[in-house]
Amino acid sequence: MADDSRRCTPCLEVCHHRGYVHRVQTTHKIPGDSATRYAKYLTSTATRGDYYSRDGADDSPVPSRWHGSPALLRSLGLDADEPVQRDDLRAVMQGFSPLTGEPLRPAGSNGTRVAGVELMMAPPKSVSALWATAGPYRRAQIEAAHHRAVASALARTEREVALIRRKSGGVVRFERAMSLLAAEFVHTSSRLAQDQEAGGIPDPQLHSHLVLFAAERTDGKLAAVESRQLYRSARESGAWYRAELATALRELGLPIERRTGRNQRYFEIRGVPEQLASRWSSRSEDIDRAARLFRQRYGREPRAGELGSLTIATRGSKSAADRLDVNEAWRAVGEEHGLSAERSEQLFDERSISNQGSVDLRAELLEEVTRERATIDERELRAKAYELAAGACRPDEADRLVADLARSGELVRLEDGLWTTRRLRDLERSTVQIAERRATENAAPLSETSLKQARREIGKEIHGSLTPEQREALETITGPAGISQLVGRAGTGKGVVLSAAARAWQLEGYEVIGTAVAGATAQRLRDDAKLDCSFTADGLCNGVEQGRVELGPRTVVVMDEAGMADTERLSRLAETTAESHSKLVLAGDSAQLGPIGAGGLFEQLRDCVPAAELTEVHRANHDWERRAWEQVRIGEPRPALAQYQAHDRLHVHDTRAQAAEAIVADWDETRRNLPGGRAVMITDASNAERDQINAMAQERRAAAGELGSHRVQLPGKPYGLAAGDEVIFSAQLQVPGERRVENGITGIVIDTARHSDRVTIETHERQPREVEVDTAKFSDLNLGYALHVYKAQGITAETSGILTGGWQTDREHAYVALSRAREQTQIYVSREDLGEAGMDLGAIERLGERMRRSGAQEASIAREAEEQAAERQARIEHEIERDRDLDRGFGIE
């Protein structure tokens, strides 16, 4: 294959599993002017699809076949049982019939034709590893299983995906094809990775290039394949392929390990050494690194043409390897890692041993549907069903399962094509019913005397008095209702109101308990509002159930950051406090970061209970910045960004790395001039980026002589810990004989042991303490100079720097990040992140687009079920028709 030919493209789906990555599927469009070159690429690999031949020949046949209805293939002079010939392929890609030379389909409006749309389908890496080490007979069996799965996925695409775009009367409609014309080419190795030397051995990777050329309409004419529809269905197609492949491999006797990789979407063959799969993932790691960089730069997954560019950029050498026997090399590497030919053969008889136990696919699917959000769309529902089916059943059985669950009502179809589960919907409804019932209760009543005294005491602490808005909010949440709600926008003094309420309840003998999803948030609430005690939401409910915590009519439970509570937790807390007749106050803001899991219930409860909202911002010292926060909150970030730019608070750099260096340099200068104040850096990108920023900040402090010389290393981190370092716990630490250190608690390293992995940390709590941490056993520590947005919600700083514009940037992340500091917030972005190489104005506009989009959750009961929506629409139409009849009766036209 010529060096300038197109190669295997990277994937829309990249499976991360056990420390290695591998490509499983890609979709991309082939330009018409690439037809000749691409036809040669697809048909010119030498030895059973390898890119590296033993004899230097470039025209060895490639395993290939045509796909399409028998009638369609006959009309073009093609045969599904014969290999694809290069001349026939070139003709089809150029848009002409190989038999007659006539055009297959009309050219586009610009006079050109797209050669085709390519799908690349590849099995999990363990399958390719087993194929590489197996003998000829077993190889053929694995290839046959792969062929079957590819054909099944193509048939499903033809059957289910509307790939024909037709415009009639100015309206664009999509319809399914009668048949698809496609060709499949099987390759069995990847390109050399960038870090592999010329003359090296490529990784084994069984995969098919499936090129779709045209779709047959109902009138028999051929049309271009609608690539966007193909892209949208990529996850479903890949999941269907893997489920079919896993079924075929199980039938061969191979043991399948289900639910592996990122989000448990994939499968592997159990018994293939993990180290071997990792060893043979070098090309995919190159592409994955490039794809991660792309996501950081542009805030989205790379599209078709961009995927091809990424692959070209990561291409390694090939030319010197054409005399090597890759099969011998692969088997030698397999034996080195414990997968000899004999061991490979044994795996084909291990299914009965490793696949013991039944799979409750129904329960798994119902759990997955609402694991992340309260609703999902049709495509995601199908994709999840097929992903769970891999190793359990065929994908068409998963389709039948979805239909059965819909008929039984366990899956509920909502308006606009969304789905949820009956269980979650019932949970939302029961919580709303509890809230509505308790809204009329007389729980934890207070006298006016206690309220006045509480206001006076809090006024002395804040050296002022509560504003009229805060006083009104105080009266609302301390009213008689069993559940009340306080919506506190960022910086509006929500903590002051909660402190005053807690003081009033305590004056009349009530016990006030603080809670939150995160332990550090609950503890901060307890310390700031001087509550009696605090628990995580799970800890509180578990404690009540187990008899370790007592709630009653003389108890008030205050939940902070309740907008971050998922439906399960919020519902459980509402039920627990209702059963004990305890008052529950929910404080939070749905415009800030939401729950990790199905949510939206906090917002849904606003109309069910007495609710107060704080809107007057007190945290920001500048009027223009208060207005900017509100603009970002409501999804109008452009005027806000213009203000930050006008005040020299918005810094645009060429690269993300330069922006990171700038935020650290400015942070270092600011903190030196900020005695007693806190300066914090916030990123909305990856944990790896946060770690790099922290490492740079640490080096600044070390160069200034502010840290101890000895460092205790942290596994997996680009830094160690030195005396003087600021740290944050990223998991709970159990301390023998003491209360645990909560996830999110910060502290300072005061000592590092020179001959062990131990550090001593003084925690930043209301009652600071020294805890000793063995980092070899507990490595969930991070430097605390830079935080991810999720850890930053709820904190207040004097100044902050925000590195934003990455793939996670949205309205909620931006609002939280921008609203942490009193005095000033500096924003750092890069042109490469935002896809702008020119003027700053273009980059700022792109940043505004990202900050405008919302990731807020919505409860399923915010949408009607499909049947209810249809009935409502029918009623509306009936009323319209009735009015028309009345108009006619009065002679009105």
General description of the model:
- The structure is a single chain.
- This protein has 893 residues and is of the alpha/beta class.
- It has five domains: 13-352, no CATH class; 361-418, no CATH class; 444-614, Rossmann fold (3-Layer(aba) Sandwich); 623-852, no CATH class; 863-893.
- The longest helix is centred in the N-terminal third of the chain and has 25 residues, at 136-160.
- Oligomerization status of the protein chains: single chain
What is the alpha-carbon Rg in Å? Answer: 31 Å
Tell me the distance between the termini.
74 Å
Percentage of residues in strands: 15-25%
Q: Which stretches of 5+ consecutive residues score pLDDT under 50?
A: 1-12, 16-22, 46-59, 193-199, 296-300, 303-323
Instruction: Describe the largest sheet.
Output: 7 strands, antiparallel
Mean pLDDT: 86
Helix content: 40-55%
Q: Give the overall shape, derived from the CA principal axes.
A: globular
Number of helices: 33
